[in-house]
Each structure stands twice: as structure tokens, then as C-alpha cells.
Amino acid sequence: MGDNADRRIAVVGIVIENRKLAAAKVNEILSIHGDIIVGRMGIPYKEKNISVIALIIDGTTDDIGSLTGKLGNIPGVRVRSAVTV
After folding, report:
1. Which three-class secondary structure state does DSSP give residue 42?
2. Is the dihedral of CA 9, 46, 76, 24 positive or negative?
3. Percent of the chain clearing pLDDT 70 (strictly above)
4. 61-72 vs 19-32: helix axis angle to the nearest 10?
5. Which member of 37, 55, 80, 81 has the lowest number of beta carbons within 10 Å of its beta carbon?
């Protein structure tokens, strides 16, 4: 983790299309990056057969990019982030 001056607050949205196949890998990656996760809310959206996770992150742009990049490489997982200045 970088110096406080280099840190950003980000909101990360994660949509999981096949929970049975992707959930374990998603949770593993979130656990590895747990030191930058401030808050997490996860909702199974049964009507659409997806799960949605919202994260609040406090980390460097490299930290945020590492987390979102690893999540985005999981098949059936879509990730979007909004990073503050």
C-alpha cells in the first residue's frame, strides 16, 4: 500500500453471471485485497440469475487496478470502477 497522498477512494461494481463457477475465485481475490476494501455489499439478484457486489476501496491506482484486473479476468465476471481524484 502506498503513501496516503497516493491513495484514492473508489467504488467498484462487480456482476457475477454464474455464481457457482465464479464465486470462489471472486472471494479469493477479494480476500487477497482485503486490506484496501473499506466496505462490501453483495446481493443475489435471483430474477436475473446474477449476483452483484459493490465495494468501497481505499488504495493506490495500482492497488485498484490490480484488484479490478484480476476480477475482470474471471469468466462470467464484469467489473466497473469509479475512482476519485
Report:
1. strand
2. positive
3. 96
4. 160
5. 80
| Cell, residue 58 | 481505499
- Average pLDDT per consecutive 10 residues, the chain (85 residues; last block may be shorter): 78 94 94 97 94 97 96 96 89
Spatial CB neighbours of 39, under 8 Å, sequence gap ≥ 6: 55, 56
Q: Using alpha carbons, list the distances in angstroms from residue 77 to 6, 41, 50, 72.
A: 28, 16, 10, 6
What is the grid cell recorded at 73? 479476468
Domains in the chain (CATH in brackets) are 4-83 (3.30.70.1150)
CA 46 to centroid of chain Cα atoms: 20
Q: Whole-prediction pTM value?
A: 0.90
